[in-house]
């Protein structure tokens, strides 16, 4: 069988407030929210969806923001429990470690660093955003509502956290 034409056209991002998150990325990228819809009957006011469409020189593909009733902010990087001072205990030969995770009430971007555990949501993907000036772009992202992640793995990359806890990277090379 010959390979059929298959093309990536968009990325969908889950969140508890998709229209709010779409507004953040629209401001960050200098584009408009192209389409959005509020909640369906019985859903909370923050439910619904929104979309940013491709804009030459600003956004190379469509970004969809979708409501997830059970959204949990992703964890990145996944810390080793012992590095955070949490006990790890093996339950028996060949078993996975069981980790005790302290429960605290902290802002979402701080929870990214401290909420990792065997049942915690782990980051599965993130957006990479090319910038011409890392410092200026990071400052702009912060002005738009992002925070800088405390873990910065490379000099030419700045890891940021959007207002709903998703990591994204600004990069220059």
Unreliable spans: 86-115
- Mean pLDDT across all residues, rounded? 82
**Element order: H for helix, E for strand:** EHEEEEEHEHEEE
End-to-end Cα distance, whole Å, is 39 Å
| Class from helix and strand fractions | alpha+beta
Oligomer: single chain
Task: Please give a structural write-up.
With 173 residues, the protein is an alpha+beta fold. It has three helices and ten strands, in the order βαβββββαβαβββ. The strands form three sheets. The chain has a four-stranded mixed β-sheet with strand order 1-4-3-2, covered by helices on one side. Strands 7-10-9-8 form a four-stranded mixed β-sheet, covered by helices on one side. β9 and β10 form a beta hairpin. It is globular, with a radius of gyration of 18 Å. The relative contact order is 0.17.
């Amino acid at each position: 069988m010959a390979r059929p034409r298959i093309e990536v056209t968009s990325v969908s991002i889950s969140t508890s407030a998709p229209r709010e998150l779409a507004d953040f990325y629209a401001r960050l990228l200098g584009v408009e929210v192209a389409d959005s819809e509020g909640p369906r009957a019985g859903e909370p006011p923050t439910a619904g969806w929104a979309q940013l469409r491709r804009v030459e020189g600003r956004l190379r593909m469509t970004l969809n923001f979708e409501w997830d009733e059970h959204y949990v902010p992703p964890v990145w990087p996944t810390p080793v429990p012992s590095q955070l001072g949490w006990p790890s205990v093996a339950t028996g030969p060949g078993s996975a470690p069981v980790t005790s995770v302290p429960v605290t009430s902290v802002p979402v971007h701080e929870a990214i660093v401290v909420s990792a555990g065997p049942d915690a949501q782990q980051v599965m993907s993130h957006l990479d955003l090319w910038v011409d000036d890392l410092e200026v772009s990071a400052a702009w992202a912060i002005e738009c509502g992002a925070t800088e992640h405390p873990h910065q793995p490379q000099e030419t990359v700045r890891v940021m956290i959007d207002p709903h806890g998703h990591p994204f990277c600004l990069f220059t090379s």
